[in-house]
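Our consortium's second objective concerns turning raw sequence data into structural hypotheses that experimental partners can test. To show how far this objective has progressed, the report includes one record in full. It was chosen at random from the queue rather than selected for favorable results. The single chain below, 473 residues long, was entered without modification.
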Amino acid sequence: MAEKATKKEKREKIPRQPMAEQEPKVRAKNFDEVPLGYSPEKAIKEAQRCLQCKKPGCVAGCPVEIDIPGFIQLIKEEKFTESIRHIWQKNSLPAVCGRVCPQEIQCEGLCIVGKKGEPVAIGNLERFVADWERENGTGALPPKADPTGKKVAVVGSGPAGLTVAGDLIAKGHEVTVFEAFHKSGGVLVYGIPEFRLPKDIVAQEVNFLERLGVKIECNQVVGRTVTIDELFEEGYQAVFIGVGAGLPVLLDVPGKNLIGIYSANEYLTRSNLMKAYLFPEYDTPIIQGKNVVTLGAGNVAMDSARTALRLGAKNSRIVYRRSRAEVPARGAEVHHAEEEGVEFFFLAAPTKFIGDDKGRVIGMECLKMELGEPDASGRRRPVAIEGSEFELECDLVIVAVGTGANPILTQSTDGLSLNKWGYIDVDDKTAKTTKKGVWAGGDIVTGSATVILAMGAGRIAANSMHDFLTLGW
């Protein structure tokens, strides 16, 4: 007993191991990744903080049910290869999840260690073993089941689609992913900036699936180049729809069509997927504003405002109609934005955009707001304060107030039930749609959400699809 008490005492004295980062003033001028990762020594020390709970809350908080204590124990034992293989049993995108998942409200949010102090840095440890395998591993692949002879089509190569592809290829099915863009990865490549998720990391994760046998066909806009029904005619026995929610939502205020007003979707796609930040190596045009305003306060807004700084903005401001307490972005992203110099204007909303005689935006009029009663989202509704108008100078506005469902695929597919917002209706327990042989998951079902929730939906769909392919509908 004395020995156990001593071990517990030593473990409790180990503080959470911080991850080194680029200095804010330096990183605000480059697109290199901000956090620099753990050394093996730091990873082992952090792993020693884990209590190895018999009923781990962290696993319950993980949408893909990774055995978190199991992979952390292997890190503690310096068995890094075994640790990543342990994660692969549940998650084929660990380098992505370790970087962009909101661990603070999921696995880490339920960590027992966090009840009295800071939780175990589960995301940092997941990132560590994924990076270690990429840099030092043998490249050996996990085992696969014997071929079943069944063919599956996955529409969209974002986190939901890649999860389905990884799960079903491991179960022995033949999987082809159809991607509309010229590169695979979905929102991981067009939506999340290089400084938060390097595209080489995404490419490596996708390559891992290809090495397992997943086929990926880019430049395939399902609903245009081929329909869902035609996929069945070509011999696919099951189809998963994971096309995301990429239709921009724009503000209906005067001046909305002025030059220099972007949707965040277009702005980030130009910078990330089309490499506008590497001009002139890549000749993708993008307006490099000096006084930039981003509307909204989610992760996409943080990505946009921080990208603007790196593209040369003198001032990068975020205007949000609610207070700081209601900000939906991850705390880490808000913290990084503030460190880098992004300014926040809370409780303010635009009423009109102001243009010059050439039709270019030069300013924005806003109203100050106050919070009223909660709305349908559970957050207090912003109410305008009459006579509180003020103006902000701006030569570039990025609208990051949400996205919607793109109707290209759904309008070309008979038999799919949609809700009033155009998202696909599915059975919550199976991800089945109303069309036989078709499943859906991720943002095209829920609206904009997190990477890991999309992956969780992909896991549910993959299990149901496997049952269908082996047992029937």
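The partners drew two points from this record. The chain has a mean pLDDT of 94. The two ends are 55 Å apart (CA to CA). Both points have been shared with the crystallography group to help prioritize constructs.
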